[in-house]
Write a structure and sequence with these properties.
This protein is an all-alpha fold. It has two domains: 32 residues; 152 residues, Orthogonal Bundle (Globin-like), CATH 1.10.490. Helix content is 73%, strand content 0%. The protein contains ten helices and no strands. Helix 5 packs antiparallel against helix 6. The chain is globular.
Length: 186
């Protein structure tokens, strides 16, 4: 498991060079984005339970057979496992976003995920769809633009300091981690 600093050191060491140039500039940008990165992680973590339950509900609305007898979200214990897995995936995405490196996601979450789900008979297309829904929700929360139409009186804005191009880069980075999960399931 690496963070952006460890990755730079390992890469420089492997090529027998010092950290400099573009690598040093990238590390400086990572440090400068620290508070924005923490705000983005906080926005996702503070809304994780709702994000996961909404993503699973959306997945089920698109494939109602999942909650029928014999479906992968029937009975309740399978639904609970589905919700648990969604929370685990989301947690590791936030770890990767905080570290600025996907190695924790790859090592601890995605390594063998597809094979495990195949062995358990979990439909990976449905899981990938739920992850896609969480990706869209994470982007909205990072930009501090949750859906007023759906939240109603429960609408909660974080008052994030993440704005402009830096917001777009964090949204893109978070999206790339969700895409890794989707690709691992495909």
């Amino acid at each position: 498991m690496l963070d952006v600093f460890s990755r730079a050191a390992v890469t420089a060491d492997a090529s027998n060079k010092t950290i400099g140039g573009g690598d040093l500039a990238a590390l400086k940008e990572y440090i400068a984005s620290g508070n924005r990165r923490l705000d983005a992680v906080n926005a996702i973590a503070s809304n994780a339970s709702c994000m996961v339950s909404d993503a699973i509900a959306g997945m089920i609305c698109e494939n109602t057979g999942l909650i029928q007898a014999g479906g992968n979200c029937y009975p309740n214990r399978r639904m609970a496992a589905c919700l648990r897995d969604g929370e685990i995936i989301l947690r590791y995405v936030t770890y990767a976003l905080l570290a600025g490196d996907a190695s924790v996601l790859e090592d601890r979450c995605l390594n063998g995920l597809k094979e495990t789900y195949a062995a358990l008979g979990v439909p990976t297309t449905s899981t990938a769809r739920a992850v896609g829904i969480m990706k869209a929700q994470a982007a909205a929360h990072i930009k501090d633009e949750p859906s007023e139409a759906r939240a109603g009186k429960k609408l909660r804005k974080m008052g994030s300091t993440v704005t402009g191009d830096r917001c777009a880069s964090l949204v893109a980075e978070a999206g790339s981690y969700f895409d890794r999960v989707i690709n691992a399931l495909s």
